[in-house]
Design a protein that fits this description.
This protein has eight helices and seven strands; from the N terminus they run αβαβαβαβαβαβααβ. By secondary structure, the chain is α/β, with parallel strands linked by helices. Pfam families: adh_short.
């Protein structure tokens, strides 16, 4: 791709790009965006960079965004058309079993980092009249005992998205929440292993479907915005016999 072609493309920023959902999101957005893919796994980032239009950025996003004032390679972006917050942490903890450190770890990565990175990129998002997408969870509504810290962080993320949408409405920035149910990712595999539950990938949502949901949101016409999308398994786990 030539430099002029790259400049003509829309620009996307995706956090958590080396996770199961993030990988598929980057692949899909790269079809019509120049994608800045942020993640920790250098090996996966290098593979992503083999895709035309993907710029891999190895980042400890907690430190870069909260301690160092931002991701250096993003600081010069003049416009951002699509920002996808896919980085997250999930551990099984009840109120009784949790520590202050565990609360902080979940709230910092799942809520404060997306809020702060959004703030840093707001000028570029406003210039593009861009789209901000928060990857939430089925845990973002309702009660999920035994998974309280993660659930609380996702409730907070929903509040962040809904309030930000109102704040940015006047300048044309769109804000959406995508809430997947159980999706075939390493995160879910880890949660189920900790619970002693048998992992059955055929029962869970394919991560490609989350990328498809994001594509639906990104391609919405200019007169509208898709505010909330729930992505559920075709047969809910509780309904299986």
């Amino acid at each position: 791709m030539s430099e002029n072609q790259e400049k003509a493309k829309k620009v996307a920023v995706v956090t958590g790009a080396t996770g199961g959902m993030g990988l598929e999101i980057v692949k899909d957005l790269a079809t019509d965006h120049l994608v800045f893919a942020l993640g920790r796994n250098l090996e996966i980032l290098q593979k992503l960079e083999d895709i035309s239009g993907v710029v891999g950025i190895q980042s400890d996003i907690l430190s870069d965004v909260l301690d160092r004032g931002g991701v250096e390679k993003l600081s010069k972006l003049e416009r951002v058309d699509t920002l996808v917050h896919a980085a997250a942490v999930a551990r099984n903890h009840s109120v009784e079993s949790s520590s202050v450190e565990q609360w902080r770890a979940h709230l910092e990565l799942n809520v404060i980092v997306p809020a702060e990175l959004t703030r840093q990129l707001l000028p570029a998002l406003r210039k593009a009249q861009g789209q901000i997408i928060f990857i939430n969870s089925g845990a973002g509504t309702g009660a999920h005992p035994g998974n309280t810290i993660y659930t609380a962080s996702k409730h907070a993320l929903r509040g962040l998205a809904d309030s930000l949408r109102k704040e940015e409405a006047g300048v044309g920035v769109r804000v959406s929440t995508i809430s997947p149910g159980p999706t075939d990712t390493e995160m879910l595999r880890g949660l189920m292993a900790a619970q002693g539950t048998v992992y059955q990938p055929e029962l869970y949502i394919d991560a490609k479907e989350i990328a498809s949901a994001i594509r639906f949101v990104v391609d919405a016409g200019s007169s509208t915005q898709i505010t909330n999308v729930d992505v559920r398994p075709r047969i809910e786990l509780g309904d299986r016999k």
